[in-house]
Amino acid sequence: MKINTAEFVISNSDPTKCPPPKKPEYAFIGRSNVGKSSLINMLTGRNSLAKTSGRPGKTQLINHFIINNNWFLVDLPGYGYAKVSKTEREKWGTMIDTYLTTRPNLICTFVLVDARIDPQPIDLEFMAKLGEKGLPFVIVFTKTEKLSKTALDKQLTQYRQTMLETWEDVPQIFITSAVSGAGRDEILSFIQSLNQE
Ligand code: GDP
């Protein structure tokens, strides 16, 4: 898919005020600092569409972008930033739960994980939450250019094994790097194929 236009639509802390769910929507989420903004910018080919966070955990907003006037890309607030208070965490939980249950147009959620780090309970818990709600998701390995092919294969195997402890099937895993652009074509083709269904 060629990206012709990528425009910011709205930022929200109130999921009910997100744009009308009239176009297919794809959400991106992960632990703060996982490389979400960098990935969104890499995918859209816009250097500063999503703000790379100098202050992780500060922006607890749902950001909608419209791509090619045809589908929504949603930048969801990250989780797992240690310095966030319990109240903030609870607010995040309520906001995300409301978002996830009020977007009938949400086609797929991309759960980003740092390829260098072993499977983390917080990521697995988030995936379990998606599973409970019957929401499709895929996994995106970020920062993969930092790993050798052998190390990357090892992480992939480990992730798949961990997933099989609780899931019948392993979700699709995309190998990406915002530095090298790896995974861009694969993710955009994946979205395009879902848009055509
Ligand atoms: P966010 O908090 O998840 O939005 O993460 P950012 O996109 O702001 O990235 C967090 C840090 O990881 C920044 O220092 C980025 O430069 C770095 N980063 C993001 N993607 C990559 C990548 O693909 N490779 C490498 N080496 N660093 C990355």
Main attributes of the structure:
197 residues, alpha/beta, Rossmann fold, seven-stranded mixed sheet, 5 helices, 21% strand, binds guanosine-5'-diphosphate
Q: What does this protein look like?
A:
The structure is a single chain. By secondary structure, the chain is of the alpha/beta class. The longest helix is centred in the middle third of the chain and has 16 residues, at about 85-100. Strands 1-3-4-2-5-6-7 form a seven-stranded mixed β-sheet, sandwiched between helices. It has one domain: P-loop containing nucleotide triphosphate hydrolases (Rossmann fold, 3-Layer(aba) Sandwich). It has five helices and seven strands, in the order E-E-H-E-E-H-E-H-E-H-E-H. Bound molecules: guanosine-5'-diphosphate (GDP). The site of guanosine-5'-diphosphate has 19 residues, from helix 1.
SSE layout:
Elements: E1 6-12, E2 25-30, H1 36-44, E3 62-67, E4 71-75, H2 86-101, E5 106-114, H3 121-132, E6 137-142, H4 149-164, E7 173-175, H5 184-195
Parallel strand pairs: 2-4, 2-5, 5-6, 6-7
Antiparallel strand pairs: 1-3, 3-4
Bound molecules: guanosine-5'-diphosphate.
Guanosine-5'-diphosphate binds next to helix 1.
Protein name: Probable GTP-binding protein EngB
Cofactor: Mg(2+)
InterPro entries: G_ENGB_dom, GTP-bd, GTP-bd_ribosome_bio_YsxC, P-loop_NTPase
